[in-house]
Amino acid sequence: MDPAWMDEDEFEDAVDAALAQIPDGLARRMDNVVVFIEDRYEPGPHEDPDTVLLGLYEGTPLTERDSWYAAGSLPDRIMVYREPILQMCTSRDEVVEEILVTVVHEVAHHFGIDDDRLHELGWG
């Protein structure tokens, strides 16, 4: 199976299109979060070196923020990893769909939805 190909600009456009599919009511509630595209996840020294992620949310979910969370806090980060998505897909349509699933999954973490619930909802 040959992996799909999409250049960096096309991939970024697909991530932007996935973000644009988030309903306006939810998008307006996203707070202090940025989205990055990186080539791949680099596991830390105490992680399995074979770890492959399609996306990652790092930050404090909205459901856990309290008075301690200041307006000047560093933004939460959502990473979308280009190479593993391209490796697992065999067509442009599959890439676009996987990007959407990955973006929805990581944005859901920003809203405090855990992996178990995302799997129940079909976004695992």
Structure commentary:
The structure is a single chain. By secondary structure, the chain is an alpha+beta fold. The chain has a single domain, classed as Zincin-like (2-Layer Sandwich). The protein has five helices and three strands; from the N terminus they run H-H-E-E-E-H-H-H. The chain has helices at residues 8-20, 24-27, 82-88, 92-110, 115-120, and strands spanning 33-38, 55-58, 76-81. Strands 1-3-2 form a three-stranded mixed β-sheet. Helix 1 (8-20) crosses helix 4. The longest helix has 19 residues, at 92-110. The radius of gyration is 15 Å and the shape is globular. The protein starts with 7 loop residues before the first helix and ends with a helix. The mean pLDDT is 91. It holds the Pfam family Zincin_1.
Structural class: alpha+beta
Specify the overall morphology: globular
The number of helical segments is: 5
Domains, number: 1
Please list the strands of the largest sheet in the order they lie side by side.
1-3-2
InterPro entries: Zincin_1 (IPR010428), Zincin_1_sf (IPR038555)
Organism: Sinomonas halotolerans
Protein name: Metallopeptidase family protein
Pfam family, one: Zincin_1
